[in-house]
Specification:
Number of helices: 10
Shape: globular
Largest sheet: none
Helix content: over 70%
Strand content: under 5%
């Protein structure tokens, strides 16, 4: 009876829906990857022996490689999303342009990242892998920057909408609640994007950040991503 209660529990069904998605599995692996990056740095800073650090370094590298393989071909999805966003003439034009920039940035990032796959897996080593990796990071910065600006602009627009709401009316109360939901989602996305920016900025040496900060930022954005994907699969 206890086993049946556990197997048929709604949380188990929800978990299965979550891990059935590629995004869900990727976010879990990303969480482990960036926590390992932080913890390996922490062990190094506290003068722990190399034998203690090695498993976490291996976890960071291997999970990063698994995620690279999993996202192969995903650039096509973002190219299509950019085209769809460009064709959408409804809504705010600023958000439309930022959406196109974001999707093109992610598409460029994933395209150049795909070019390093054979080198990363050891199938075929190439001298151009480092150059391609740097280009992918530049495109990632572009996509994330567009997303950050879009979320900041969205929050500003929500404040403008909220100022016009009459909370004394029934429709006004409903609109106020809708604004709160949209604001919460936008804040989560903004926080996640700002955390993610530490990764390419550090990789390109545009900002001097150690693995501790990057690892913690990546861990936080991964947790936010898991939370968002968990809600989507509810």
């Amino acid at each position: 009876m206890v086993a049946d209660a556990l197997v048929y529990h709604p949380a188990v069904s929800h978990y299965l829906k979550f891990v059935a998605t590629t995004v869900g599995r990727d976010k879990l692996l990303r969480l482990l990857q960036y926590f390992a990056r932080f913890y390996a740095w922490y062990l190094l800073r506290t003068n722990k022996p190399a034998s203690s650090i090695a498993p976490w370094e291996t976890m960071k590298k291997q999970f990063g490689l698994v995620r690279k393989v999993m996202r192969a071909g995903k650039n096509v999805e973002h190219i299509k999303a950019a085209a769809v966003a460009a064709d959408n003439k409804n809504g705010d034009p600023i958000l439309r342009y930022l959406a196109v920039g974001r999707q093109l940035g992610y598409a460029g990032y994933l395209t150049f990242d795909l070019g390093t796959l054979l080198d990363a897996t050891g199938i075929r080593k190439t001298e151009s892998a480092k150059r391609l990796a740097r280009e992918s990071q530049r495109f990632w910065v572009m996509g994330l920057s567009c997303s950050v600006v879009a979320q900041a602009y969205t929050l500003w627009r929500l404040r403008q909408r909220e100022a016009r709401v009459d909370r004394k009316e029934g429709e006004g109360v409903v609109e106020a609640k809708r604004i709160e939901v949209e604001r919460a989602a936008s804040r989560i996305q903004l926080t996640s994007d700002l955390c993610d920016l530490t990764v390419p900025l550090s990789a390109l040496a545009w900002v001097n950040l150690d693995d501790g900060i990057v690892g913690l930022a990546g861990t936080l954005s991964s947790l936010l991503g898991i939370y968002s994907q968990w809600k989507k699969t509810a």
